[in-house]
Amino acid sequence: MNIAHPFMEGNGRSTRIWLDLILKKQLKKCMDWSKISKRDYMNAMMLSPTKSSVLKTLVKNALTSKINDREMFRKGIDHSYLLRRK
């Protein structure tokens, strides 16, 4: 998704939403985005086309089963905007 998304702006947010939906449907898990620093996330996204293991490790370490927790959802949205800021 990171590579396929046609625009640089919104790419990360789109990828995070897409990933959360897949994880929720397939694994009954979601991401706790507050467990991932902006630096680590940006590094993993840059490496993802050739070295996906870095991104996989970040995802694995931030998974939670709180898929119906509204607070977790809100925190994920808030964190998406924090990750976006320069």
Roughly what percent helix?
A: 55-70%
The CATH superfamily is: Fido-like domain
- What overall form do the CA principal axes indicate? globular
Q: How are the strands of the largest sheet arranged?
A: 1-2
Global Rg: 12 Å
Low-confidence spans: pLDDT under 50, at least 5 residues?
Answer: none
Order of helices and strands: HEHHEH
CATH-assigned fold name: Fic-like fold
Q: What does this protein look like?
A:
The protein has 86 residues and is mostly helical. It has one domain: Fido-like domain (Fic-like fold), CATH 1.10.3290. The protein contains 4 helices and 2 strands. The protein has helices at residues 11-27, 38-47, 53-62, 70-84, and strands at 30-31, 63-64. The longest helix is centred in the first third of the chain and has 17 residues, at 11-27. It is globular, with a radius of gyration of 12 Å. 8% of the residues are buried. The model has no long low-confidence stretch (mean pLDDT 80).
Topology:
Layout: H1 11-27, E1 30-31, H2 38-47, H3 53-62, E2 63-64, H4 70-84
Antiparallel strand pairs: 1-2
Could you list some keywords that capture this structure?
86 residues; Fic-like fold; two-stranded antiparallel ribbon; 2 strands; globular
Short recap of the structure:
With 86 residues, the chain is mostly helical.
